[in-house]
Amino acid sequence: MKDSNSKPWRPFTANCCSVEDQAVFGNFSRCRPSRSDFSKNIAPLPSFRRLSFSSLSRSSSTRINEDLAQSFGPDLLDFQLSELRAITQNFSSHFLLGEGGFGTVHKGYVDDNLRAGLKAQAVAVKLLDIEGLQGHREWLAEVIFLGQLRHPNLVKLIGYCCEDEERLLVYEFMPRGSLENHLFKRLSVALPWGTRLKIAMGAAKGLAFLHGAEKPVIYRDFKTSNVLLDSDFNAKLSDFGLATMGPEGSNTHVTTRVMGTYGYAAPEYVSTGHLTTKSDIYSFGVVLLELLTGRRAMDKTRPKTEQNLVDWAKPYLTSSRRLRCVIDPRLAGQYSVKGAKEIALLALQCVSLNPKDRPKMPAIIETLEGLQHLRDMAVTSGQWPASPKASRSVVSAAKEKRENGAKIYWKNSPVTHSAKS
Ligand SMILES: Nc1ncnc2c1ncn2[C@@H]1O[C@H](COP(=O)(O)OP(=O)(O)OP(=O)(O)O)[C@@H](O)[C@H]1O
Ligand SMILES: [Mg+2]
Predict the structure, then answer these.
(1) Quick one: CA dihedral 126, 258, 292, 393, positive or negative?
(2) Do you find a cis peptide bond into 385, omega within 30 degrees of 0?
(3) Those residues with Cβ within 8 angstroms of residue 159's Cβ, 6 or more apart along the chain or in another chain
(4) Which has more pLDDT, 61 or 18?
(5) pLDDT score, position 70
(6) Looking at 21, 112, 164, 221, which residue is catalytic?
(7) What does the alpha-carbon distance between residue 211 and residue 276 come to, in Å, rounded to a whole number?
(8) How many CA atoms lie within 13 A of 264 on its CB side?
(9) Checking CA distances to 88, which of 104, 152, 256, 330 falls within 20 to 30 Å?
């Protein structure tokens, strides 16, 4: 659990319903995937004539419930707080799955005893500690985005609850939790190389789907804790509270709201607020580096020069000899040498300082596809063990998470507009 001191600083947001809201949520039916996606696995999107983010932000909980129910119909369930209390034993710590910056997540179970016709299934209930309008906006963004977007690599939102000041979200339960837990929790079994590739591919497909929509969706908070895993290690993206509709043409989005998480956010985004799908590509590159090295994007427990993964790893990525020194020692040489080299180069491209040099998601998927069947294991080709210098320092995973998961916020209230890149 995160301690209360690590809570992100929240800015005072005088103008919560800025122009951005109109552009982002005002006409949600524009957020349509391409035709080819439709034919595969995408549920048709409802029409959102009544659902305006700006007006919903200001509405009473009764009005919000009415609007959401009318817009989503039976696709998304509006739960009562009492129902969610019942299925989580009053949000008991025994049912706690984890805790993020916005509250705790508890396991529950729903079936048709709770609601007639409800499919029996385990669920994850996120109890948002919303602290005012800012948290409400993120809750609403999550409902609106995930309520409409359906894809095998996006976590499924089953329902929501909006009662007085309470805001909750009900997701499908992901039995293997987050990628973060598997990569960095000391007690977890090391993820095999093939599983890491499978996860990278699943997450890439989720991002490609978002970016490939007619009006691209920028995910904005791509990181290992938001990549959830089902029982077969299929990856699904969660947490759309920060997602935003992308700019069209040469416009880039300038935002002054929450930005993402230290270590994952693209440098141009941190310094200027300019937001494009290429910001997500940067974060994807950081996650590739985490998969490769077993190190966190930002690790304050390490010496200064090693704290930022991208800065530390870059010099190692272009030489096979140096690369083997930074491969996750928990893999114990059970990784494809060629595959690791390709991932390193791909990651390097993704974290290019110039966003234009970063690849697009389809190219990333193509590269990853080519690596799935490589079997040239380092341990059998004499490339392991590598230098002991690279071994992971032994630190408490809980301490790491507490110190490294900080979100980035802008200090000023939001003034948002589109700008030419
Ligand atoms: N649908 C789910 N199924 C199973 N476990 C989940 C689910 N959603 C979240 N969790 C667990 O709860 C933890 C907390 O999730 P949450 O999204 O609230 O925070 P976070 O991603 O760790 O941090 P942040 O607030 O910075 O996004 C996750 O790391 C994961 O272990
Ligand atoms: Mg999360």
Answers:
(1) negative
(2) yes
(3) 76, 77, 78, 79, 169, 170
(4) 61
(5) 79
(6) 221
(7) 10
(8) 24
(9) 152
What separation in angstroms does the CA of 285 have from each of 262, 266, 278, 301, 329? 14, 10, 11, 22, 20
- Evaluate if residue 58 carries a pLDDT over 70: no
Structure tokens given for 404: 């490294």
Can you give the length of the chain in residues?
A: 421
Q: Is 225 in the pocket of ligand 1 (CB under 6 A)?
A: yes
Q: Structure tokens of 219?
A: 């995910």
| CB of 382 closer than 8 Å to CB of 277 | no
Closest CA to 148 of 23, 29, 63, 39: 29
- Extract the annotated binding site for ATP: 126
Q: Could you tell me how many helices (H) and strands (E) the chain has, helices first?
A: 15, 15
For 18-34, write each residue's pLDDT tens digit. Answer: 223 332 333 333 222 33
In the chain, the amino acid numbered 137 is R
Question: How far is residue 286 from each of residues 156, 197, 221, 336, 349, measured CA to CA in Å?
Answer: 25, 14, 12, 20, 11
Ligand that comes closest to the CA of residue 408: 1
- Which ligand 1 atom lies nearest to the CA of residue 401? 22
pLDDT in tens, 84-137: 999 999 999 999 999 887 789 999 999 998 888 889 999 999 998 876 556 787
The domains found in the chain, sorted by start residue, are 22-172 (3.30.200.20), 177-407 (1.10.510.10)
87, 126, 160, 178: which to mutate for ligand 1, most atoms within 8 A of CB? Answer: 178
Residue 282, amino acid: Y
Strand partners, 308: 298
Which helix H or strand E contains 54, and what residues bound it? helix 53-58
Nearest to 360 by CA among 211, 202, 196, 152: 211
Among 29-33, 68-72, 391-395, the range of highest mean pLDDT: 68-72
Please list the residues that pair with 163 across neighbouring strands. Answer: 166
Side chain identity at 120, as an amino acid letter? A
Residue 342's pLDDT is what?
97
Task: Find the angle CA(101)-CA(277)-CA(8) to the nearest 5 degrees.
Answer: 15
